[in-house]
Specification:
Helices cover 32% and strands 25% of the residues. The chain is built from ten helices and 24 strands. A hairpin with a 2-residue loop joins β7 and β8. The longest helix is centred in the C-terminal third of the chain and has 29 residues. The two termini are 29 Å apart.
Length: 392
Amino acid sequence: MKQIVVAGAGYGGLRAVEKLSKRSDIHITLIDENRYHYMQTEVYGYIAGTKDIDEITIDLESWCEGFGHNVSFEMAKITHIDHEHNRLSTDKGEIAYDTLMIATGAHTRFPTFIEGLRQHAFGVKKLERAFEFRHRFEQCVKQKLEGDNTPIDILVAGAGLSGVEVAAEMAYMLERYRHALGKNVERIRITLIDACDTILPGLDPFLIQSAQKRLQKLGVMVKTGAFIEKVEADRVTFRNGTTQSYTFMIFTGGIAANSGFVPEIFERNQFDQLKVEDDLRLVGADNIYAIGDVAEIVDKRGEPLPPTAQVAEKSAEHAAENIFRQLDGGPTAPFHGEIDGLFIALGGRYGAAELFFLRFKGMSAYYAKRLVTYIYTLGLNLRVNAAYKTRH
């Protein structure tokens, strides 16, 4: 029986396991250093307190058990790939594979040219950092409930998708707290900062304008064209010499791939993303695929695709199909990925969406996003429930 190893339990890794499990002549091992799957696309709600821990995580061991005997889970940290002997080294020992799929995602990239950024800012790519940020936000609300009149300034640096969603959801929650906090709620201020000339750079103008209007309505101050040069414990300094004080800061300005365990002979880009052939195999490797954020994946025009859950899942499905083709003795096929649409949560029951040729905003976009999330989590929970019934 062929041994397929999927390294990484993000959106792409889980979709790959689902696809690969349809064949009974292979065994799939899912490896991750955490015992849970972390739904990063829902982190904005967790930070603001509108979602709880059970809504953004799922137990991986139970999920894998739901597939039966041909899928297993190993909680381990991968340290090295011996591509010549088809073996993974981990902190728990070695694991052999016939085919490897790397789906280890990415982490927050703190640019080294911004002095002090890494030491003083929170990222949201890891659950523990999101938990810390949520705790700080809740502490701010508690201070105001107790009558503390000290101004609190929250900075969100990076006005891409994550930054906009986090800022909007926090601002919406502050509006909800107005009945409890009164005028004191106005002493918690949220500022969204980006070095680009616009928020959501590169996205459709409809999404940008919808987000700008919603953020303005929610009271979020937006600063674009603002290059951060230095971060200290209580203030940031911009390139133009101006400064801004803050209470705490979240950084969502970029990513770097989790590819440190991959041998250096495999080429990477400036974000440590692995270079892949058009069939998603590593350049120079016949039996190693890379998908999702850890890989540099391009569309049919050769333009890099954004690091989204949608791209991760599509590339996972295609890589799995190519593995099936190899098992059956056939040639692999090139990946022609594209973005079908995009949903943005903009605080409360409000959102903006671009879906094929449709563009809409408001409650309809919010509920469309909720439906997509519901279908995704329903599939995960059904697997876990199947495992629970088998055990009992």
